[in-house]
Amino acid sequence: MTASTSIDLNAKIPNNVGLAHDTKLRRALEKWLPNYLEWWNDMGPTDFADKPVYLRTAISVSNEGWAHYDHVKMPDYRWGIFLNPRNPDESTIRCGDDAGRKAWFEVPGEHRNALRRIIVTQADTEPASVEQQRLLGHTAPSLYDMRNLFQVNVEEGRHLWAMVYLLHKYFGRDGRDEADELLNRRSGDEDKPRILGAFNQPCDHWLSFFAFTMFTDRDGKFQLAALAESGFDPLARSTEFMLTEEAHHLFVGQTGLQRIIQRSAELYKQDPNNDVRNAGGIDFDLIQRTINYWFTYSLDLFGGEVSNNAADFFGAGLKGRFRERKKYEDHKVIAGTYRMPMVEGGSLVDKDIPMRNAMNAVLRDEYITDCERALRKWNKVLEKEEIDIRLTLPSPRFHRHQGIYAGHFFNPAGELITEAEYNANRDKWLLVPADNEYLLSIMKPCYEPGKFANWIAPPTRGIEGRPQEFEYVRL
Ligand SMILES: [Fe+2]
Ligand SMILES: [Fe+2]
């Protein structure tokens, strides 16, 4: 069995999946490796390839000390393939019609297409975000932040490896073709875009970067957590390990926004007219519109609120709910409904949807609860600074491109409005391209160790016990 904690770190591709004993697979992946590196050089972070970055590299799958920290040039990063260990006897299908039965260690024929689609969709997000963020090193507010950006980037690269391993090992020729395609699509490209909408949106500046890692990487957390409950054992164990890395990405986003809020609060009080922009900071209105923008694009990633696919994936045991095994008792969910407001004849009417069909909404609700936790922390900062402004999450009906609310018009409070009303207010509610000019004007790089740009507060502590003034990137 491959439920191993022993890692082959000296192999060309570090792994704990026994690549040394699987010549055919190893050769296929070693053939994909130079293509991956070519993609990284073309589409990864620009211009910092020769600079040593204080990066963490996964070297173990045990809970204690799974990572090693050192200065590494990004192209030399050791991207590896790691699956969480799991006792095969305890690996079961955790949800749906066959809940409780033994998990699959090979792809069952009847679920082959669905599983491939699930894996490819997840895989596609990983390189996409690296592409979206490739220019941000040039405007980093500090070496600490630059290091965090690059850490996120190399780990998204590793997540791509994690998914490509599954495609190569379990899906034959089709899988290899899909793995090649993952290096051919490009975020925002008209002809060959990335699969999901949020991953084609520009991430032009650090306000968007922090909102992206806060809201879009957080969608990733919930998708990975749902797949960690999959009956397909290698997928479950692979995504489980990805979650270990993902926690830091969410930390970067949540604390990044919190540090902006902290700094904006200080500037708000300093300026005689409470004009944060006049003081060179990011005003709360712009922060709120950025939250509105990235939160709603991230909600789209959960798919339609009413979904046959979601019902099929759950019923087949391919994708569970958040903490399916720990949190729920009934894993079949044959009965039960989910109430959601739907647009009917020009107004909102509550409808009861069979629970299995509402699984995307169930997962999304867990996500919203998680986001609300961060909002509470941010508002605590404002409270402490004795500023009356509060930040909020918009209604999940607002600004949607997927699901039952797409094609209708809502204000951020979730009330149905006309298209004309929406268009007249859009710029007041959402981050718009016109904001970029101002944001880019204040986002001048700040590369001196221990120094931070004027628009963001320093972090409360450094990385891995290192001080703030540590040289996180050696320029
Ligand atoms: Fe990822
Ligand atoms: Fe991530």
From TrEMBL:
Domain of life from the UniProt record: Bacteria
GO biological process terms on file: phenylacetate catabolic process
Record's protein name: Benzoyl-CoA oxygenase component B
This protein's GO CC annotations: cytosol
GO MF annotations in UniProt: oxidoreductase activity
